[in-house]
Specification:
The chain is an alpha/beta fold. The chain has helices at 2-17, 20-27, 31-45, 61-90, 101-118, 131-139, 173-178, 187-193, 204-215, 229-237, 251-256, 285-293; strands at 50-53, 56-59, 93-99, 122-128, 145-149, 157-165, 167-171, 195-199, 222-226, 242-246, 260-261, 271-278. Strands 4-3-5-12-6 form a five-stranded mixed sheet, sandwiched between helices. Strands 9-8-10-7-11 form a five-stranded mixed sheet, with helices on both faces. Strand 1 (50-53) and strand 2 form a beta hairpin. It is rod-shaped.
Length: 299
């Protein structure tokens, strides 16, 4: 195909100039080489494309028919090149991001505001679902980048760490006092009498907390399952029970005393959060720029 494209380029240039010598100079090849290439194309197509005249060359009827198609093709190529150049110049691109509702609200949206001010010509599509589903979409190439916790299979992905988050259990003072939770010395006893609010089992955070509770032999007798972190935080704020939340997202509540952290005998280890892309797939420059931009964002 590449060889044919070269022959068509020679044919196209000769047809435009109507002169073998001029065409050869434009293409930086010798006149005999150009003539030989045209003869080769004519041989392959089984027809004569040019007729020599005293002023140069002119297209035959078959040559004119071929020229109309070749001109359309080369115009399309030139338009494609101009479009690519314009995209590079203006920074036009489309980035598809997968993220959980919680990380979208508390981490992604503040960054997006700054990023879009810097790169207004980049179109952003956000798909919100659990982190597990985000990883599935990434594997299916339906998104370009995900914002998740550390992947289970790190060799498959590039992971760009943004920071750490810490899971804690919180409740209101009124709820703690109502159940006299301050009197319990054993944390496991608190979970037996209190209403414990967790995310649903499809959520990566819930799976992490389930592992923690099983490892430390903690059982929740009265369990309330909530679909989103926002709802879970709101339920904790109105005193419905003890909620497992991400500490970074309730700092104001903790500072004001609106919520109290339930002390645990066994700490919940912090988790890393970051952008993730497939290791074996090509990453668009706009996606790389989006990821690198986080480093310059004020935190």
């Amino acid at each position: 195909m590449e060889d044919h494209l070269n022959l068509y380029k020679i044919f196209y240039t000769a047809a435009n100039t109507g002169n073998i010598s001029k065409a050869a100079r434009q293409l930086f090849i010798s006149q005999p080489s150009l003539s030989k290439s045209i003869s080769r194309l004519e041989s392959q197509l089984g027809t004569q494309l040019f007729v020599r005249t005293s002023r140069g060359v002119r297209l035959t009827e078959d040559g004119r028919l071929l020229y109309d198609h070749v001109r359309t093709a080369f115009n399309a190529i030139e338009q494609g090149e101009r479009t690519l150049a314009q995209r590079r110049e203006l920074g036009i691109a489309h980035i598809r991001i997968g993220v959980s509702t919680t990380l979208c609200k508390y981490m992604l949206l503040p960054y997006l505001k700054i990023f879009m001010e810097r790169c207004p010509n980049i179109r952003i599509t956000i798909q919100c679902q659990s982190s597990n589903q985000t990883m599935e979409l990434l594997d299916q190439k339906q998104i370009d980048v995900g914002l998740v916790g550390t992947p289970d299979h790190p060799k498959k992905y590039h992971f760009y760490e943004l920071g750490e988050i810490e899971d804690i259990f919180v409740a209101t003072d009124s709820y703690i006092d109502h159940l006299k939770l301050r009197e319990y010395k054993d944390v496991s006893e608190i979970f037996k009498v209190a209403s414990v609010m967790l995310l649903d089992k499809h959520n990566m955070t819930r799976q992490y907390i389930d592992d923690y509770m099983e490892k430390n032999q903690i059982t929740a007798k009265n369990l309330l399952v909530v679909t989103t972190m926002d709802l879970l935080i709101e339920f904790a704020r109105i005193g419905l029970g003890i909620g497992c939340v991400i500490k970074e997202f309730v700092r104001e509540d903790l500072s004001s005393g609106r919520l109290r952290e339930i002390p645990l005998g066994f700490p919940i280890h912090k988790r890393k959060i970051g952008f993730v892309t497939p290791r074996q797939s090509y990453v668009e420059p706009a996606v790389e720029s989006f990821i690198r931009g986080w480093e310059t964002m004020p935190h």
